Amino acid sequence: MAYLLQYHETAVMPYLFGLDLSREARVVLATALHQELRLHGDVYMNNPARRLAPGSDCFRFDLVFRDPASKVIHQLRLIISDTAARYGILRVEYAEDEAGSSSS
Length: 104
Fold this sequence. Notes:
Number of helices: 2
Number of strands: 4
Strand content: 35-45%
Order of helices and strands: EHHEEE
Mean pLDDT: 93
């Protein structure tokens, strides 16, 4: 099932827009979120090891990618709520990036 992704308006949207990413890296990020989370969200939702706690309505989604322009490696952690998954919606509640040094 393909899900609609919603982003927390005050915690996640400004954070993601504020990341130091090139245009190319934003395309990589958007593509990865579409391919992995939108199209294959069930795989992550159904993995108990990704739940924040047993019975939690939130799971963890980790994404590691390299900015093609700056060569900086980003490790993005997202917390996703699946309370509206039965309606086809996953909500990104939290985002945090650990940008490393550039890699050649």
